[in-house]
Write a structure and sequence with these properties.
Order of helices and strands: HHHHHHHHHH
Largest sheet: none
Structural class: mainly alpha
Oligomer: single chain
Shape: globular
Number of domains: 2
Distance between the termini: 38 Å
CATH topology of the largest domain: Fumarate Reductase Iron-sulfur Protein, Chain B, domain 2
Number of strands: 0
Radius of gyration: 19 Å
Helix content: 40-55%
Number of helices: 10
Mean pLDDT: 86
CATH architecture of the largest domain: Orthogonal Bundle
CATH class of the largest domain: Mainly Alpha
Length: 178
């Protein structure tokens, strides 16, 4: 399987300990029987190279290369894998833990970097658009406020988001160039 491609020198047994320290539920990863139900039920896997089972197997083995895999960032966090797992392995939470480890190691997919930058700048991962956007016109047509009650409606909230980035030293922690 995957470990044969990476070789034994790419294994880090401490990585699984980093994942397991999240919660008691995370220990269920050890009961994974590699049935493939997570990969079979993954909506992202239908359209991308993502193989959830491979990510979980790599995490169990401590394959460090998994932290650099683009597939790690393809999970939509829909939790369908957990809902269908016969052993109730918190697959999505394991992937999130792997992403956190990867981010701290400096491995963040370029699209995710752009999303983080957009979040820091606008308060939203996906900006809603300006007054002439299709989104705004649809809201007006439905007799809704053109701007929903989000960070974009309340400038002081955006300042709070920026302050959170600053207080957490987010940029320094994940080595993002702004």
């Amino acid at each position: 399987m995957y470990y044969k491609q990476t070789g034994l020198k790419g294994l880090n047994p401490r990585m699984i300990n980093q994942i397991l320290k999240g919660s008691e539920e995370m220990k269920r990863i050890r009961s994974c029987m590699q049935c493939g139900e997570c990969s079979a039920s993954c909506p992202s896997g239908r359209f991308t190279a993502m193989r959830t089972r491979k990510l979980i197997h790599s995490a169990l083995l401590g394959v460090e290369k998994v932290l650099q895999e683009p597939e790690l960032w393809m999970c939509t966090t829909c939790y369908r894998c957990l809902e269908r797992c016969p052993r109730r392995v918190p697959v999505t939470d394991v992937i999130i833990a792997l992403r956190n480890i990867a981010a701290l190691e400096g491995y963040i997919h370029e699209n995710m970097k752009n999303t983080i930058k957009t979040l820091q700048k606008s308060g939203h991962a996906v900006p809603l658009g300006g007054p002439d956007s299709v989104y705004t016109k649809q809201r007006i047509a439905l007799n809704l406020d053109p701007i929903p009650p989000t960070v974009q409606k309340y400038p002081e909230a955006l300042e709070e988001v920026k302050k959170l980035f600053e207080i957490s030293k987010f940029k320094e922690r994940i080595s993002l160039e702004w």
